[in-house]
């Protein structure tokens, strides 16, 4: 028996400029208003990583479904991005066509971009504080 659905959580690099802009874009397009967020260095993310040892050295966004529950599932890199597109729905669902590209190739491209993300988008000294109207959707703020 599965538990009551719990809102998904997106773990992201809180000091990455591109990552923060991506979160802001997701917030603008989230019609349901239920996706929550946590920085990769937060207590919440550390607890998820503890439950999923494969995430130990993760330097990627991580999409967490049913967080903390017996059916908790995590995806990272491009799979996490595609899960966000599926969650957002609407025109973002067109991005799901990227699944025809083998995951290893998608993730290699993701890793190459992620390695240079601070050069492209800058780096904050600390995770920026979310706007008051969305702050409740951020865990460990």
* N-C termini distance: 33 Å
What strand line-up does the widest sheet have?
2-1-3-4
Helical coverage, percent range: 25-40%
Low-confidence stretches: none
Structural class: alpha+beta
Largest sheet: 4 strands, mixed
Query: How would the global form be characterised?
Result: globular
The sequence of SSEs as H and E is: EHEHEEHHH
How many individual β-strands? 4
Radius of gyration, whole Å:
15 Å
Mean pLDDT across every amino acid position: 90
What share of the residues does DSSP label as strand, in percent?
Answer: 5-15%
Q: Output the number of helix runs.
A: 5
- This entry's quaternary arrangement is single chain
SSE topology sketch:
Blueprint: E1 9-12, H1 17-29, E2 36-39, H2 43-51, E3 62-65, E4 73-76, H3 77-88, H4 103-115, H5 117-121
Parallel strand pairs: 1-2
Antiparallel strand pairs: 1-3, 3-4
Keywords:
11% strand, globular, 141 residues, alpha+beta
Descriptive account of the structure:
The protein is an alpha+beta fold and 141 residues long. The protein is built from 5 helices and 4 strands. It has helices at 17-29, 43-51, 77-88, 103-115, 117-121; strands at 9-12, 36-39, 62-65, 73-76. Strand 3 (62-65) and strand 4 form a beta hairpin. It is globular, with a radius of gyration of 15 Å. The model has no long low-confidence stretch (mean pLDDT 90). It holds the Pfam family DCC1-like. This is DCC1-like thiol-disulfide oxidoreductase family protein.
């Amino acid at each position: 028996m599965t538990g009551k659905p719990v809102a998904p959580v997106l773990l992201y690099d809180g000091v990455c400029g591109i990552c923060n802009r991506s979160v802001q874009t997701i917030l603008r397009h989230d019609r349901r208003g239920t996706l929550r967020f946590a920085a990769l260095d937060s207590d919440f993310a550390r607890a998820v990583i503890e439950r999923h040892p494969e995430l130990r050295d993760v330097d990627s966004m991580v999409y967490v479904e049913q967080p903390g529950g017996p059916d908790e599932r995590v995806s990272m890199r491009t799979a996490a991005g595609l899960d966000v597109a599926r969650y957002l729905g609407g025109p973002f669902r067109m991005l799901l066509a990227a699944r025809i590209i083998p995951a290893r190739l998608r993730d290699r491209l993701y890793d190459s971009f992620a390695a240079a993300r601070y050069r492209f988008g800058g780096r904050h000294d600390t995770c920026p504080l979310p706007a008051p109207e969305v702050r409740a959707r951020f865990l460990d703020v």
